[in-house]
Write a structure and sequence with these properties.
By secondary structure, the chain is α+β, with helices and mostly antiparallel strands. It has a domain of 147 residues: FAS1 domain (Roll). It has eight helices and six strands; from the N terminus they run H-H-H-H-E-H-H-H-E-E-E-E-E-H. Strands 2-1-6-5-4-3 form a six-stranded mixed sheet. The longest helix is centred in the last third of the chain and has 42 residues. It is elongated, with a radius of gyration of 42 Å.
Length: 245
């Protein structure tokens, strides 16, 4: 009996050890969860490509890079960026960038951004003028894109540029190098004047109209008062005449 109990005790101990080792091995060999992919960062992409120092600085100071990264996280439309390299910025008129105020710098960068993903083979499907994130004013913000074979041309009415190739594409963000900075016509057209303020001469006209409208009533009141005065005067003469009899 004692031998049987020892046997069962030993057998139970072996099963416990075997189960524990199996669990440990399974836990050790279980695959680790795959790390989540990092969100798209336009600045990191341009730094990795190299040659876009000025564009990176403008994207950062205008906070357009932050806006683009947020759009990529929260929208399914994607984004297309036309990226002028440092040579393109250096070909601008000296002092041009420094002459722009903060709003114009923001407008300049937004003019290089399309609010949707466009594959390099799909530029011929766009309708001109193409809408950018700077606005869709056909007179001041027009961007026309034409493609012929492997060549894609862009014109703003001020600048004619050529697509130099793909810098980055992940089916949500497309970055294409362009050989010139895209300058909108808005920078070179006279600013639209504000709507004219009401002329001071118009106010007397309104007052005159009001006087004209009130005129007949005022004349009638004056006539009625004159009649009452005459009646009182006649009544006074009558009473004086009667009292003297």
């Amino acid at each position: 009996m004692v031998r049987i109990m020892k046997f069962f005790y030993s057998f139970s101990l072996v099963l416990i050890l075997l189960f524990s080792s199996t669990t440990t091995i399974s836990a050790a060999t279980a695959p680790a969860p795959a790390p989540s992919s990092a969100p798209t960062d336009i600045i990191r992409i341009l730094k990795k490509a190299g040659g876009f120092t000025t564009l990176i600085r403008l994207l950062t100071t205008t906070q357009v890079s932050t806006q683009m990264n947020a759009q990529l996280l929260n929208s399914n439309n994607g984004i297309t960026l036309f990226a002028p390299n440092d040579n393109a910025f250096q070909s601008l008129k000296p002092g041009f960038l420094n002459s722009l105020n903060d709003q114009q710098k923001n407008e300049l960068i937004q003019f290089h951004v399309l609010p949707s993903f466009v594959a390099i083979t799909n530029f011929d499907t766009l309708s001109n003028p193409v809408r950018t994130q700077a606005g869709d004013d056909p007179e001041r913000m027009a961007l026309n894109i034409t493609s012929s074979g492997n060549q894609v041309n862009l014109t703003t009415g001020i600048v004619n540029a050529t697509l130099g190739g793909s810098v980055y594409s992940d089916h949500q963000l497309a970055v294409y190098q362009v050989d010139k900075v895209l300058l909108p016509k808005d920078f070179f057209l006279p600013k639209r004047p504000p709507p004219p303020a009401p002329s001071p001469e118009e106010k007397p006209k309104d007052s005159k109209k009001k006087s004209d409208a009130d005129g007949p009533a005022s004349s009638a009141d004056a006539s009625s008062a004159n009649k009452r005065g005459v009646m009182l005067l006649l009544l006074t003469f009558f009473l004086v005449a009667v009292s003297s009899l």
